[in-house]
Amino acid sequence: MPRGIYKGAEERRAYWAMVLPAFLLYLLVLAFPILLSIILSLSNFNGGRMFGGDPWRITGFQQYAKLVTDPQFWLALKNNVYIVLISVFGQLPLGFIFAYLIYRKIVKFGEFWQGVLYMPSIISVIVIGIMWKIIFSPSGLIADMMNGWYAGSFSRAIAPVFNVPGGFTVTDGTLRQIIAASDPAALSIFTNPVAELKDLILSYPTGELPVLKGDLVNLLARKWSPDFLAKPDLAMIPIMFVVLWCWTGMYLILFLANMQKIDVQIIEAARIDGASEGQVMGRIVLPSLSGVIVNAAILCIAGSLNSFALIFAMTGGGPGRVTQLLSIYMYQNAFIGSPDYPLANAIALAIVIFSFILIGLTKVAEKRYGGRE
Amino acid sequence: MRHSALTSPASRVAGIVGKVLAYLVMGIFALMTISPIVWLILNSFKSTTEYRLNKVGLPREWIFVNYPGAWKIGEFDKLIGNSVIYTLGATMGIIFFAILAGFAFAKIRSKATPLIYGSFVIGILLSIQSLMVPLFIEVSQLDKLLGDLFQLIGLAKASDFHFFYNSRFGVLLIYIGSGLPVAIYLCTEYIKSIPDALVEAARIDGAGYFRIFRGIVLPMSVPIATTVAILNITGLWNEFALINILVSKTGLKSLPLGVFRFSGALTADYGKQFAALVIGMAPMLLFYMIFRKQIAKGVAAGAVKG
Fold first, then answer.
1. Which of B42, B37, B264, B253 is nearest to A313 (CA)?
2. Prior bond to A205 cis, omega within 30?
3. Per-residue pLDDT for A370 more than 70?
4. Tally of domains within chain B
5. What residue of A is the nearest CA neighbor of B19?
6. Residue at B116 is within a domain
């Protein structure tokens, strides 16, 4: 073997030639930005040239003081927590259950279900965000379907009033029946509903019953109008639904692939010895996947703390900032209107720190409660 | 007695009920998954007027003009071209640099490995999206510095010099950097499984490290390269957060950026809007249909955070 000083030098040269390109790119894209965000969040640099431009200096922790007193920040953090929660306690269990159903062949056509459920994860989140924005919009699919349903149930409720043999008569009783079926919000246009409704109905000519019915539906049936601005917590529900809709399939695939590594004989033996499906799942499959589940949880937390594009396309943080997230809040401070780079950098660092804290907690939980591998 | 749990009538009934329940849950979720996508595709064949009146049903009149209209307004030929360049260019770069570095980490002993490899592994946890602001500031400052330098030499005017911002090259570099941590982790772990004896034998025969890389490591890494490629192609094709801050020139935009711009410009023209969305998801759906198995494998292998 040609060992010697020469070989060591060649080895070292080759090593650095192979590692350095990747490491420089790593520094450029990950390490320096973190360093920069630490420096800039402590400074008053707000655009222009860092070198040779207007002087800027380190001003201390005032950005962080600003953050903790900013209600926008806490709202964004809360919304982020919602997304973390639905991801960890929605996507993961659902993905696991679906994977188990396919793995144990409790449902047939596993390939098909897998193929369908994973599909949203492959589509651009921009397309998905805009699609759901249109579906949830006040003139969108959900509103349309809900309004149709409300109108239908209203017509059914008032139908007995009109379907009287020999024509209907307007009495206080029938009016009360109509009012009882109406949306209270729609009735608020009347000061004295019974009397005014009577006048209104009597103003229609006798032959135009269908017109009257249609107008009553339009006027009095409930309308679907979730007031997201007044109820900010409600505004996160569609987003949480879409998050669940979008990525559950990914965890299904992840869990299924790892379940298929389990020795089938163990499960078969357990089944023959009388173990139920529930016992197989709880005693065999779940423990042997504990490491994968922790990894998935970490993936999930990191992903949902950083979620940006989907919600950016779907709501842009609106209406009126009620669906604000940390990343969107950061984006707005840096790129919308007059920039506030120090604050934006403080948010960036806060996101990084939160990610590490949550991931650390997950690891601690794994050590204490799981990790039987 | 041993088979009692499987054959007793009570447990058989429970089994059937469980099966029905399983199919029900699975069916409902699958239906919920697929129906918005089908709805979107169907509505791209309605005129905007028809959409306003008929949101739920099939198109009464199938209209195809939305597609050529959206294609032209959105300049989708350019967008898709750019997306192909970014995705394939960055994916090839990631694979090359990751196998190169992975080979060094796995087969060449060095005191620097724990530190550098360790920093890549920590990097897996970091999401670059949260760093988009400092990243943007960094590249624009670098552009200014490089611009000054080039002006000093007399090659370009500092004001219109862009190396990173609004440049395909800049996007590619940043995409490659962002994909490296996961890719290097996967490649290093994979190359560790190549027998040392193979490398040593080639060394004894007098082969340099780069010849070993080309002749042995690269060909043997095809399976892991496929996994890395699948992961990055799907990820980069749909990437939005970074390119959104790196590119403002229309001619350099990628498909997701173009779709996003389209939705802002033409909110009221639902017909074309839906067509644009379908165009936006069609390439990936096609890719998915062809490579479904490989994608599933890649996703399972690539979930390595932590």
1. B264
2. no
3. no
4. 1
5. A106
6. yes
Is-contact A302 A360, C-beta < 8 A?
no
Strand partners, A346: none
For residue B106, give the chain A residue with the closest CA: A15
- C-alpha B12, offset from chain centre: 46
Cα separation of A53 and A230, whole Å?
A: 46
Residue of A nearest to B34 (CA): A116
Q: Which domain holds residue B118?
A: 65-302
Give the confidence band of B3 by pLDDT, cuts at 50, 70, 90: very low
Partners of A14 on chain B (C-beta within 8 Å) are 104, 108, 208-210
CATH of the domain at B169: 1.10.3720.10
pLDDT digits (tens, 9 = 90+) for A105-125: 888 898 999 999 999 999 999
More confident residue, B276 or A5: B276
Q: Give the span between the Cα atoms of A303 and B147, in whole angstroms.
A: 36
Q: What are phi and psi of A58, to 5 degrees?
A: -75, 125
Asked whether the beta carbons of residue B2 and residue A51 sit closer than 8 angstroms, the reply is: no
Q: What is the pLDDT of residues B53-88, one digit of tens each?
A: 888 889 998 999 999 999 999 999 999 999 999 999
**CB proximity A101 to B under 8 Å:** yes
State whether A299 and B305 contact (CB < 8 Å): yes
Q: With contacts defined as CB-CB under 8 Å, which chain A residues touch B230?
A: none
Closest partner residue to B180 (CB to CB) among A22, A127, A249 is A22
Q: How many Cβ atoms are within 10 Å of B204's Cβ, its own excluded?
A: 10
What tens digit of pLDDT does each residue of A317-368 get?
Answer: 878 888 899 999 999 999 998 889 999 999 999 998 888 888 888 888 878 7
Closest CB to B55: pick one of A2, A141, A298.
A141
Q: Which residue of B has its CA nearest to A307?
A: B129
pLDDT higher than threshold 60 for residue B188? yes
Rounded Cα gap, residues B273 and B268, in angstroms? 8
- Please answer whether residues A120 and A127 qualify as being in contact, where contact means their C-beta atoms are separated by less than 8 angstroms: no
Close Cβ partners of A61 (under 8 Å, ≥ 6 residues apart): A42
The answer to whether residue B297 sits within a structural domain is: yes
Of B112, B134, B176, the CB nearest to A40: B134
C-alpha B306 chain-centroid distance: 20
Chain B touched by A9 (CB under 8 Å): no
SS (H, E, C) chain A: CCCCHHHHHHHHHHHHHHHHHHHHHHHHHHHHHHHHHHHHHCECCCCCCCCCCCCCCECCCHHHHHHHCCHHHHHHHHHHHHHHHHHHHHHHHHHHHHHHHHHCCCCCCHHHHHHHHHHHHHCCHHHHHHHHHHHHCCCCHHHHHHHHHHHHHHHHHHHHHHCCCCCCCCCHHHHHHHHHHCCHHHHCCCCCHHHHHHHHHHCCCCCCHHHHHHHHHHHHCCCCCCCCCCCHHHHHHHHHHHHHHHHHHHHHHHHHHHHCCCCHHHHHHHHHCCCCHHHHHHHHHHHHCHHHHHHHHHHHHHHHHCCCHHHHHHCCCCCCCCCCCHHHHHHHHHHCCCCCHHHHHHHHHHHHHHHHHHHHHHHHHHHHHCCCC
Q: Given this model, what pLDDT does residue B159 score?
A: 67
CB contact under 8 A, A308 and B129: yes
Q: Do B299 and A254 touch (CB under 8 A)?
A: yes
**In this structure, is residue B276 part of a structural domain?**
yes
Smallest CA-to-CA distance from A258 within B72, B297, B306, B122 is with: B297
Token pair recorded at residue A194: 């019974």
Question: Which residues does B149 contact at the CB level (< 8 Å), separation at least 6?
Answer: none
Contact criterion met (CB < 8 Å) for B133 and A276: no
pLDDT of residue B306: 40
Confirm whether B58 is domain-assigned: no
